[in-house]
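Example record

One chain of 343 residues, shown exactly as stored in the release files.
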Amino acid sequence: MRAETIRFRHRCPDRGLLALGLDCDPAVPGGRLFDRQGDTWALDLPRPAPSTLHRIEYRLRHQGVAEDLLLLDEANPSHVRTVFGERSVLELPGYRSPAWLGATAHPGHLTPLVLPSETPDPVPVTMWEPHGFGPGDPLPLLLAHDGPEYDRLAALTHYSGALIAGGVLPPHRVLLAHPVLRDAWYSGSPQYLRTISGAGLARIRQLYAVRSPIVVMGASLGGLTALLVGLVGDPAIGGVFAQSGSFFQVRTDPMEVGFRYFPRIVDRVRAILHARHTDHPLRVGLTCGVLEENAPNNAAMATALERAGHRVSHAEVPDLHNYTAWRDALDPHLTAVLLDLWT
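Predicted structure tokens for this chain:
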């Protein structure tokens, strides 16, 4: 691998392979088609600046006579689980996984629950509670949209347990919200927002002693939803943490116009961007990949929220739209929001 390029090499003597491509996030710079050199296929990508990209998740697209396949790179033993299945991953010089990932975590246990809801379908959630505490102990609460995915792919409850064990964060609970009808619920659904901020959280406060303020978090459409839940105005909610938020605008997101709920999201986002005052200031943390197509909208949202009177931190990170990127940004960025509100 030369300093100025990232070099992929794939040996395949199969003459039935007509073309080989790199299947990865479109924000990764460079071409996608390999050149054939005998039995070896080669692709060189321009090396991104270290400040923009530390990792590349990818598969190899085999285009054959009989079928096309998306396969892991057998020459690369490094793999990562994603919401769309396993991927090969190339970690570039300078990348480091978070220290808390290998730290001993305060143990906890999970309790499945169902929230009373206005939506036609039930809203299931799972409560993580640290061992040594019971429902009657008043603890802060972190509510995570796409909660099971955050836990499985971004180790969210391990993050909480590790930072509790290390004395960085106070003992707290994590409520993992399940995305049953994700597109419908996480696109500004009035019924879903009222469920979470109204009867849903009221039910949680009946079952558990919650020490305010509550922090709501999510990524992508979940990041949008976390912000919308926070802006409903429930006085118990004091913070929002949104990663790669899908803050769609007509001008900047024409590629999303075919999404069924695009108009509703645009209306919700426009109202936030135009707000000049808030009666319920929130502590808001935003993170987004430097090269993501969502990056300009996240920057615009940070400016608008701060102008309206919210306390905002906004960070662009050297990764893309994936759970590992969101995991790696939890500390220090989510940590800062939680410390500001809970200590």
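Notes: The domain at 100-342 is CATH 3.40.50.1820 (Rossmann fold).
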